[in-house]
């Protein structure tokens, strides 16, 4: 395999992780180290997983999965009273793009703060970025964050009033007036929203400071608490690159169970059409929320953060053995 060591990147990554560990340790967080292999997953129809097989001549074998995020383990720790925790973890997602902002294996920082909501996590993340950024970092990559709600962003950059477009039919008609195609067969509200957001809004978001895009529409289903027509969720961008995602974590058992049941049914339906394998799902996972404390969780892409901070333009420049390089020298599979 052709390889050129980039020592400056190793040094940068080492300094970033060391500074972040110091930040969390000073605040009493526990660093945890959970498995990369799991016997079951949370149902996520949009994510395809890497699957492998455990084999043992005495106890037989079973399927295992490389985790797409450490959430499946970290939330169990919080439910059992771990308090605030963080982890640097390798995560894996199959059948995704390989390019500027994607690699099938990537490094995630995930941190959960007990007693916080998503607004508290904005301030915490500002401190984290400020503390861990190297000397001489451009001001456009440093706090304070620019904050804008999704409703404001949709109005400012697409002239779409989200409050007036709560029905899919209304949003679809608005989408057409913007010159964007919407299929004649009805699609879900989220798909129509994404046509507008990804085409007109996200590419035009301001890049003069790190940006927190706050209060996602409730129709974009996830396990962030709902607040009227919106959810207590934000994403953070730097130079137009999505870096972090945050929820005020939903803790109502019935709500969580209904969400997982719906996502599992969607997963089964989609995979049955394509013939793809359906991963093992622990449908009892929602039970842990019967004793889950008020918590805000943030997932941050470390490779993307390093890419932006170092002025690079592709993740392959920040990963010592990028997947694209490995593919170029390996044999093709049938």
Number of strands: 12
Task: Kindly provide the name of the CATH class of the largest domain.
Answer: Alpha Beta
Strand content: 15-25%
Characterize the main sheet.
Answer: 9 strands, mixed
Order of helices and strands: HEEEEHEEHEHHHEEEEHEHH
Average pLDDT figure: 93
Tally of domains: 2
Over all CA atoms, what is the radius of gyration? 21 Å
Class from helix and strand fractions: alpha+beta
For the terminal residues, how far apart are their CA atoms?
21 Å
The amount of helix comes to 25-40%
Tell the overall outline.
Answer: globular
Judging by the overall fold, what is the CATH architecture of the largest domain? 2-Layer Sandwich
CATH homology superfamily of the largest domain: Bira Bifunctional Protein, Domain 2
Could you name the ranges where pLDDT drops below 50 across 5 or more consecutive residues? none
Brief synopsis:
With 334 residues, the chain is α+β, with helices and mostly antiparallel strands.
């Amino acid at each position: 395999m052709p390889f050129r060591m980039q020592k400056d990147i190793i040094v940068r990554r080492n300094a970033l992780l060391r500074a972040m560990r110091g930040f969390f340790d000073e605040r009493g967080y526990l660093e945890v180290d959970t498995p990369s292999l799991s016997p079951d997953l949370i149902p996520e129809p949009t994510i395809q997983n890497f699957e492998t097989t455990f084999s043992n001549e005495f106890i037989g074998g079973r399927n295992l999965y490389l985790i797409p995020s450490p959430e499946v383990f970290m939330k169990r720790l919080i439910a059992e009273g771990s308090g605030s925790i963080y982890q640097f973890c390798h995560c894996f997602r199959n059948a995704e793009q390989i390019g500027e902002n994607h690699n099938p294996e990537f490094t995630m920082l995930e941190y959960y703060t007990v007693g916080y909501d998503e607004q508290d996590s904005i301030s915490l993340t500002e401190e984290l970025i400020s503390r861990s950024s190297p000397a001489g970092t451009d001001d456009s990559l440093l706090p304070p964050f620019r904050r804008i709600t999704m409703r404001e962003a949709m109005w400012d950059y697409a002239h779409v009033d989200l409050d007036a477009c709560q029905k899919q039919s209304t949003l679809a008609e608005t989408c057409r007036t913007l010159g964007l195609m919407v299929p004649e067969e009805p699609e879900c509200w989220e798909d129509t929203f994404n046509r507008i957001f990804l085409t007109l809004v996200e590419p035009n978001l301001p890049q003069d400071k790190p940006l927190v895009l706050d209060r996602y529409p409730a129709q974009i289903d996830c396990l962030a608490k709902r607040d009227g027509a919106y959810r207590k969720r934000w994403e953070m961008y730097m130079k137009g690159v999505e870096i972090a995602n945050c929820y005020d974590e939903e803790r109502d058992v019935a709500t969580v169970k209904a969400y997982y049941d719906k996502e599992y049914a969607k997963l089964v339906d989609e995979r049955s059409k394509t013939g793809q394998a359906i991963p093992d799902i622990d449908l009892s996972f929602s039970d842990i929320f019967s004793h889950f404390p008020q918590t805000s969780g943030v997932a941050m892409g470390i490779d993307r953060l390093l890419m932006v901070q170092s002025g690079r333009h592709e993740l392959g420049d920040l990963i010592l053995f990028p997947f694209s390089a490995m593919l170029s020298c390996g044999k093709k599979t049938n």
